Amino acid sequence: MGTARSGFRSQTGIRTLIATAPQRLYGRRKGRPLRTRKARLMEDWLPKLQIALPEKGTLDPHTLFPSKPRTIWLEIGFGGGEHLAARAKQHPDIGFIGAEPFLNGIASLLVPIEDQRLANIRIFPDDARVLLDALPEGSISRCFLLFPDPWPKARHAKRRFIGPENIARLARALCPGGELRLATDDPKLALWMREHMEASENFAPHFGPSGEPPPDWISTRYERKALKASRKPVYSDYRRR
Question: What angle do CA 88, 187, 151 make, to 5 degrees?
Fold first, then answer.
């Protein structure tokens, strides 16, 4: 695999990463202590895969991979990484970037990366907003935001990822015709996302919102938990105008 620059070497590095986050993040950065294998994966694999942003200018995502990928797809908040890993296995000619600040989720993604020798995934273990701001305009062709934290309390609504500022960020990073896929099992968040996306001049509805997943859907553990609890997910796709 090709390597990306990294300062992520140890548990001290984990603490430093958490302490130096450039923007305020809501939610946890670290959960339960990692088991032996996942702790080893964080030491052995993350330094090879972690994206370091340039101090000046933009980051060409194609340069992160050993051979130039056909295009770049991004998943924001990949959770345990099962969706990202499955997509990467399906499309070895595409470069995948996963942005996820939760360190236990990153460790979970590293398991299929090692087991399946997935060479086309790179990880940004921090705030996706910072990554989006560093990407060149029109450099992403597909973006996934699947079952994000709904922040159900009214006073926390501003913490939801989909909103005017981040929609503008996504519009800048996505190429014309690029796809933004959204999914949630929270009715209030589904309505919130729909209203904000349809208010944007930069995106046009392509699929949904629908109670049925799109044809190429890959299930996630959050979706399965929602269905088990009788919460019906809502799926939608938007295209960059």
Answer: 75
